[in-house]
Every structure is written in structure tokens, then in C-alpha cells.
Specification:
This protein is of the alpha+beta class. 31% of the residues lie in helices and 40% in strands. The chain has four helices and seven strands, in the order E-H-H-E-E-E-H-E-H-E-E. A seven-stranded mixed sheet has the order 1-2-3-4-5-7-6, sandwiched between helices. The chain is globular. The mean pLDDT is 96.
Length: 144
């Protein structure tokens, strides 16, 4: 498995991952627009020429706002999420970001645990942030 900068060639595969992983997925067109945004950073995890995961973040001055982290269900528990987050943390350090932040479903213990391993801490909650089902979001931030 290798981590690559996302390109237009990855868009269909990433859109498929969105459909599989999220109740309210980003459309291919939304992904395409965001990929063209100079402030956004997208990385893909590729195994045998197949996209098995991706991560996206928007950079605003010296702040990083993670959009989504998705790993193909068949490839979970193999370190792909860790590799993606690790690469994004490295990017943040190299680009002198002050922090990276994200929202995660309160019930998503495995994701919260993974983010904690990289130094993300809970900084708050957003009540009823998620729909289908309605659930609070936990805000997690990693400071540099």
C-alpha cells in the first residue's frame, strides 16, 4: 500500500468510497471542485492500483480542517487510516500549521481512538451535528 497525492484519476474511486462509507456522501462533482481548490489537500491510499482509502483537509492560513477520512470496509484494521492520518500530520508539520481539527460521531469509538493515538484531543461537542441517525459530533484537535 502506498500513499499518494489525490489526482483527477482517483475521483471515481474516492466517490465510490464516499458512497460506501457515509450516510451523506460527497458527490463526485463536489470532490472534483474541492480537489481543484488550492487550499485543499487530498491523499489516497492505493493498493494494487485500487484506491482503498483517502483523507482530505482544507488549509486556512495556518489551520487544518479535516473533511473526511474513509477506508474501504474490506481493508480496515490494516493500518491504512493510520498511514493517511500520519501523512497528513507530516504535511501539517512541514507547512507550519498551528493545529488540525475534525468532527467525528460520538459513537465512533474506533475513529476517536485512532485520532487520539496521533495526539488529537477532545475540545468540544456539536449537539445533533449528524443526521441519519441524529448524533452529536465530538470535535478533536491536534495542536502543534
Amino acid at each position: 500500500m502506498k500513499i499518494e497525492k489525490m489526482t483527477a484519476e482517483h475521483l471515481s474511486s474516492v466517490a465510490r468510497l464516499e458512497e460506501e462509507c457515509f450516510v451523506h456522501p460527497w458527490s463526485r462533482q463536489s470532490l472534483e471542485r474541492e480537489l481543484a481548490n488550492e487550499s485543499s489537500v487530498f491523499l489516497t491510499a492505493v493498493e494494487n492500483n485500487r484506491v482503498v482509502g483517502y483523507i482530505g483537509m482544507n488549509v486556512v492560513i495556518d489551520e487544518g480542517y479535516i473533511f473526511n477520512v474513509a477506508v474501504d470496509e474490506k481493508f480496515r484494521k490494516k493500518g491504512i487510516g493510520s498511514a493517511l492520518i500520519g501523512e497528513l500530520v507530516t504535511f501539517a508539520k512541514k507547512n507550519n500549521l498551528c493545529f488540525m481539527t475534525l468532527e467525528v460521531r460520538k459513537s465512533n469509538e474506533s475513529a476517536r481512538s485512532l485520532y487520539s493515538k496521533f495526539g488529537f484531543i477532545k475540545v468540544g461537542e456539536r449537539k445533533n451535528y449528524y443526521k441519519d441517525p441524529i448524533e452529536n459530533a465530538v470535535l478533536m484537535t491536534k495542536y502543534f
